[in-house]
Write a structure and sequence with these properties.
The structure is a homodimer of 128-residue chains. Chain A is built from four helices and four strands, in the order βαβααββα. Chain A is of the alpha+beta class. The radius of gyration of chain A is 18 Å and the shape is elongated. Chain A has a three-stranded antiparallel beta sheet. Chain A binds chain B through residues 20-24, 28, 65-69, 90, 93-94, 96-97, 100-101, 103-104, 108, 111-112, 114-116, 118-120, and chain B through 20-24, 28, 65-69, 90, 93-94, 96-97, 100-101, 103-104, 108, 111-112, 114-116, 118-120. Chain B binds a DNA duplex (20 and 20 nucleotides) through residues 25-26, 41-43, 46, 52-59, 74, 80-83.
Chain lengths: 128, 128
DNA sequence: CCGGATCCGATGTGATACTG
DNA sequence: CAGTATCACATCGGATCCGG
């Protein structure tokens, strides 16, 4: 948690768009993962999620907050504004199931991609 | 499996739209569940999934087939056409994780709905 | 620093009608 | 029986610009 999140955390792994299993919207699973080991600031989350615009990140965070999976803590000080997001107990309880499906995807992503390629190739042949 | 699928199988339970966890598109998880105990014909699937139009059901089945999760078997006979869908080994391997997330939803759906209601009520107050 | 406002294309979902 | 064709609509994700 003390360490900042690496910028390439989701660059290669976790191709959410490719997985048949989704948690919340496009970015929700990554957000939960980022919060698994402690609270994070908005700008901290933007590092690994650098391909998402602020607006969309806000929308995802709001949706997770609405579901009671994360909580938002805002503190105003002379140094400026500080907003932190953290998992609620409910959000933490979702980490287990989330890891189960992530494990499944990691284990079978090759079969999945091969099946798609094969299917698309067969369709291509039929169209041609 | 020999028994037909009950028409109200998904009427109350499994409010997929309410769950933050999704498998494939809107109907994919229900389809996999229907196929868990054996192959089913297109028209058999339409019984529990009576709120989905043929076009959308076809699209869902195609998507699952593309991912290699189900297989499509077509046989033509004098009695007419017969198309059956069944889980592939890959599809069967997904049943475990699927049940894990379904269990989580069953266990926490009340907290989830309460959180949403509370959040929306607070937002309502702010707007007013 | 942490967003909101606005616009827009892509995608998902569905009703209705029709077909090999 | 097992789908297709067409049209319509809502939501999602993103680009861009703006604000406290």
């Amino acid at each position: 948690m003390r360490e900042p999140l690496p910028p390439d955390l989701f660059d290669e792994v976790c191709p959410t768009a490719l997985s048949p299993v989704r948690v919340g919207d496009k970015w929700a699973a990554m957000i939960l993962t980022c919060l698994a080991d402690g609270p994070r600031r908005f700008s901290e989350l933007r590092v690994p999620l650098r391909r998402v615009t602020p607006k969309v990140l806000t929308a995802s965070l709001r949706a997770l907050e609405r579901d009671g999976l994360i909580a938002r803590d805002e503190t105003r000080a002379a140094s400026g504004r500080r907003v932190e997001y953290r998992l609620t107990p409910l959000g933490e309880s979702l980490l287990g199931p989330l890891e189960v499906v992530c494990g499944w995807v990691r284990e079978h992503i090759d079969e999945l991609l091969a099946a798609r390629e094969s299917f698309d190739a067969a369709r291509e042949r039929r169209t041609a």
